[in-house]
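COMPLEX REQUEST
Ligand: 2'-deoxycytidine-5'-monophosphate
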Amino acid sequence: MKRIVIAIDGYSACGKSSTAKQVAAKLGYTFIDSGAMYRAVTLHLLNQHVNVEDLVKVEEHLNEIEIGFEGSSILLNGNNVDTEIRTRAVNENVSAVSAISAVRRKMVHQQQLIGRGKGIVMDGRDIGTVVFPDAELKIFMTASIEVRAERRQKELLEKGIDESIESIMGNLLERDRIDSNRADSPLIKAEDAIEIDTTNITLEQQIDQILDLAKEKINEN
Ligand code: DC
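STATUS: Structure written out below.
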């Protein structure tokens, strides 16, 4: 059966990763959360006390960083950092780090290598526009800020992190602003992406919608 590339882009906390992960599982495809890669880079820089505004210092530290995956877990230099990449410190610095072109070049290169064999679902901000401009299926996910903040709060609580809705909303809006306005690969909807507003639909409905679209593409000649 034909194997395709599915690119899922959109704002923070629209449910992209949860959806992408389950779509991949149902199709037997690889799932890559590209945001986790930018988060792992940010974590390393913070651990090394690098000022993320200092582009020269950030570039100097980039070759110390090796990102890997073990199933859907993310590895930073061989260590599982699934929990550490979700902290407030990482949330507050990741948009600045991911606006740096040298960081993006390194991540995009690795993402393209992973996607070479197709059979992949990758979520992020520039997957349908920059990483896989030829992806067979491109989805752009949106949701209201209130619903996004509630979903993110629930996700954090499940990881034992307690943060107020106001603080989460502030961070999401700030990240939307930086991610959408940066010079290199800003968050924009690809012309050929299909928009799905997830404000009033369940995770199961999001997954089913994308699976239906994927099956159409897979069965197309
Ligand atoms: O999906 P997320 O919220 O975990 O992503 C964290 C940050 O990483 C997000 O604020 C912007 C950046 N990012 C990016 O610039 N490009 C991607 N493909 C994925 C994420």
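REMARKS: The pocket of 2'-deoxycytidine-5'-monophosphate is lined by residues 12, 34-35, 38-39, 94-95, 98, 124-127, 175, 179 (CB under 6 Å). The longest helix spans residues 165-181.
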